[in-house]
Amino acid sequence: MNLKNFIIYAIIITIVCIGYVNQQLEIFKISYKLREKEKSLSEIVDHHQILLYNNTCLKAPQYLSYMLKVNALDLTWPDTESVGEVKIVRKEKTQIAKSGLTIWKSIFSDLVIPKAQAAFDKGK
User: Fold this and answer.
1) At what angle are helices 61-70 and 2-59 packed, to 10 degrees?
2) How far apart are alpha carbons 4 and 2 in whole angstroms?
């Protein structure tokens, strides 16, 4: 009976020890995964900071003027030939009758919604 109790206690202690070791191994695995995630997060944050710095440098007026000089880009006012006029065109009453709108709706829409038609006249 004494040997039987010893074997039972040994099996129970062995199962408890194996469970404890398994638990500790899982804790170490999770800690390694956590370190990898922290390292990748740190790299991402550093990359983000570099991109923000580059973005602010690219928007800087000094950099833009330098790039204009290096690439020999000359910024000037446009010619009068390349500028077109925009004329505002109003609807006629015949078009209102054809569309089925009442007069007060068309007047209201003309006041609220601006209508424009672009025209490019090179000769003018």
Assistant:
1) 60
2) 5
User: Taking the C-alpha atoms of 103, 108, 109 and 113 in order, what is their torsion angle to the nearest 10 degrees?
Assistant: 150
**Under 8 Å between Cβ of 121 and 85:** yes
Domain boundaries, the chain: 2-69, 79-119
CA-to-CA distance for 15 and 7, rounded, in angstroms?
Answer: 12
Beta bridge partners of 86: 118
Among 7-11, 22-26, 83-87, 110-114, the minimum mean pLDDT is found in 110-114
CB 117 within 8 Å of CB 83: no
**pTM (2 decimals)?**
0.42
- Beta bridge pairs of residue 85: 119
Q: What is the DSSP letter of 90?
A: P
pLDDT, tens digit (0-9, with 9 covering 90-100), for 5-57? 999 999 999 999 999 999 999 999 999 999 999 999 999 999 999 988 888 87
Q: Which two tokens stand for residue 101?
A: 């709108």
